[in-house]
Specification:
The complex is a heterodimer of chains A (403) and B (211).
Chain A lengths: L2 H6 L12 H14 L13 H25 L3 H25 L7 H35 L1 H7 L5 H19 L7 H28 L7 H15 L4 H16 L8 H19 L1 H5 L6 H40 L5 H7 L3 H9 L6 H18 L5 H19 L1
Helix pairs in contact in A: 2-13, 3-5, 3-7, 4-8, 4-9, 5-6, 5-7, 5-8, 7-8, 7-10, 7-11, 8-9, 8-10, 10-11, 10-13, 11-13, 13-14, 14-15, 14-16, 15-16, 16-17
Chain B lengths: L1 H13 L6 E2 L2 E2 L3 H24 L12 E3 L3 E3 L6 E4 L15 E6 L2 E9 L4 H14 L10 E4 L5 E8 L3 E10 L2 E10 L4 H12 L2 E2 L5
């Protein structure tokens, strides 16, 4: 029976069949492996990573305050508008990344930690001082013309990727039982990159708006804002997602055996992609018309790489979703087609949503969401009442979608 | 009841065994936290410190000039070190000169910045003054004095003084381009050094490249 036919077969929630032991064991193993459903404690005074995290984030925030204060006063309205636009931009990518994390979703507090590290500690405490010093050193060794051509592409990929990625070490230490899989690292890396991207873009706006002696802050600020937002769509977010995945493979966890070769490959891939992006001006040379095509090519390569890493790491998450919900299918709460759709890829979901015609697409989407929420309750032993309610909700929405 | 049991189990799991602590901290967390702290120290302090140990090697040779985008050229004193910007002819890969340059000798330095500016030198100086005041940078103390370069570019120069150095800001405008030069010197600057700085300001010329 294919996925389409199974999706159409109604489940019978009123008849609860016994669940085979091996399915319950597989479910327990998936929960243990993934850390799905565990709560993240933000306050951990006995964890050294807790203190290091907040000291460095606050130090970064203090440096950021100083940086913005020195350039911001004459162009405060430009920075305010830029900040508002970047907040919307950040919210959009936040939503996209949370949507990608649709299987064993990470706790919101943990991804907020990743964003905060990426936004304050990574750029302002780690990367900026190192970038300035290394570029200065390049100038002393190779000369200023070389610096103007190639220094950014041979500085930021090392300093910024390391600055963002090292945050993952703290996040793993703060949430040992939650951050366990390569996909967890991929998602946290994306949020580390998102924080970095948003704050770095705001700093660019502040610095550029003061250019040309501050005579055109609006024009200069908005030009750089649009440029950074369009070219950065597959920028820090993608590089950090790839870098963090590689770093986790290098570190290894109880759920993810160490993979040195793949880890190094991914870390280097992130750095090379970042370096290519930052060297576009040098590659184009005096042919300014080549800048945009090269930028497009580099962005396309980065997009392909990040999608490959996503598809390689998300498989285990889908297997976990299947293992968690398999007992619900065995007991008749869910139909096999619903399980296939909710633990499948985008194509499987689209097929499920479209299976009962255009008019029922909304209800089918709601049904998938209800099944996902059921999974979130099924992994939490303290949510028995919520689990029963989630099961009833699935049955109710399914009944509506069958009418 | 289930919720209470689960919450208790959660808290018990988080409790660090007494024999696994060091100064109250979970010993398992010390190594990763220490690694991050070490990386932070290297990037925030060690690399900038190493930078201070390495001297600038690029120097202005006799007859050399530096060029700023969009085609503003000047002749720094021979033997001065270059900390920013490029000498004429040493074009970066982009084919475009940078809009900043800085040279130094001992405690004296001159930094040049260009940008689009349609207005008079007086308007540019006012703009620079406003920006500096907003940034709480050095405040100009003297009245502006008109100056003209050897090639006929008109400008203004205004002095400032802070606790460590004397200095001046000179501004020029030419064909829609503004030029700002910040000069810093020790309080006991010798006459020959002051002459070198004056000659450099006087050497500013426009090469005719269009913006």
């Amino acid at each position: 029976m294919n996925v389409f036919a199974r999706a159409l077969r109604p489940a019978r929630p009123d008849t609860v069949a016994p669940v085979p032991d091996h399915l319950e064991r597989a479910k327990a193993a998936a929960i243990e492996r993934s850390g799905w459903g565990l709560r993240f404690d933000a306050f951990q005074p006995r964890n050294a990573a807790f203190w290091v995290f907040w000291v460095l984030v606050l130090a970064g925030a203090w440096t950021a305050f100083g940086q913005f204060r020195t350039v911001a006063a004459p162009i405060a309205p430009t920075i305010a508008v830029g900040g508002f636009v970047l907040a919307l931009y950040g919210a959009l990518f936040w939503w996209v990344t949370r949507t990608m994390d649709r299987y064993s979703t990470l706790p919101a507090a943990l991804v907020v930690h990743a964003f905060v590290w990426g936004g304050f500690a990574a750029p302002f405490f780690f990367a900026l001082p190192a970038n300035d010093a290394i570029i200065d050193l390049y100038g002393k060794v190779f000369g200023q013309s070389w610096v103007a051509s190639w220094a950014p592409g041979l500085t930021a990929p090392f300093t910024e990727e390391l600055a963002k990625g090292i945050g993952l070490v703290l996040l793993i230490t703060l949430a040992r039982r939650i951050v366990r899989t390569a996909f967890d690292a991929f998602i946290l890396g994306a949020f580390l990159g998102l924080g970095f991207q948003v704050l770095e873009d705001l700093l660019y706006v502040a610095q550029t708006a003061g250019g040309d002696f501050g005579t055109d802050p609006w024009g200069a600020g908005l030009r750089i804002l649009v440029l950074r937002m369009t070219t950065g769509a597959v920028g820090h977010i993608a590089y950090s997602a790839i870098f963090a995945t590689g770093l986790l493979l290098l570190i290894g966890t109880p759920a993810q055996p160490r993979r040195i070769g793949r880890g190094i490959l991914l870390v280097l891939t992130a750095m090379v992609l970042h370096g290519l992006f930052d060297s576009v001006g040098g590659f184009a040379g005096p042919h300014a018309g080549l800048v945009f095509p090269i930028l497009l090519l580099v962005t396309a390569i980065a997009l392909v790489c990040v999608l490959l890493v996503f598809h390689a790491t998300v498989r285990n998450e889908r297997d976990d979703m299947r293992a968690v919900l398999a007992p619900e299918v065995a007991s008749g709460v869910l139909a096999p087609g619903e399980l296939d759709a909710v633990s499948g890829d985008g194509r499987a979901r689209r097929r499920f949503v479209a299976a009962r015609g255009r008019r029922r697409r909304g209800l089918r989407r709601a049904l998938l969401q209800a099944v996902r929420e059921l999974a979130d309750d099924a992994v939490r032993p303290d949510r028995a009442a919520e689990l029963e309610h989630a099961r009833a909700e699935v049955a109710r929405i399914r009944a509506r979608s069958h009418r | 009841m289930t919720t209470t049991t689960s919450t208790t189990a959660h808290h018990l799991h988080r409790r660090v065994p007494a024999d696994r602590r060091w100064l109250g901290l979970d010993r398992r967390t010390l190594l990763p936290a220490g690694i991050v702290l070490a990386v932070a120290a290297v990037m925030h302090w060690v690399v900038p410190w190493v930078d201070t140990l390495v001297p600038y090697r690029e120097r202005i040779e006799a007859g050399q000039t530096m060029t700023l985008d969009p085609g503003i050229r000047f002749a720094p004193p021979t033997g001065w070190g270059i900390t920013d910007g490029v000498v004429t002819g040493d074009t970066p890969a982009s084919g475009r000169y940078p809009d900043r340059a800085a040279v130094f000798s001992g405690q004296s330095s001159m930094s040049f910045t260009t940008g689009a500016f349609d207005g008079t030198p007086r308007a540019l100086l006012r703009q620079v003054r406003v920006q500096n005041e907003n940034r709480q940078a050095f405040a100009l103390r003297s009245e502006a004095t008109p100056i003209t370069t050897a090639s006929g570019i008109r400008g203004l120069i205004s002095e400032f003084r802070d606790t460590t150095s004397d200095g001046a800001i000179a501004v020029f405008t030419v064909d829609g381009t503004g030029i700002e030069v910040v000069v810093r010197t020790p309080s006991d600057t010798s006459t020959p050094r002051a002459t070198e700085i004056g000659q450099t300001l006087s050497s500013i010329t426009e090469t005719g490249a269009a913006r």
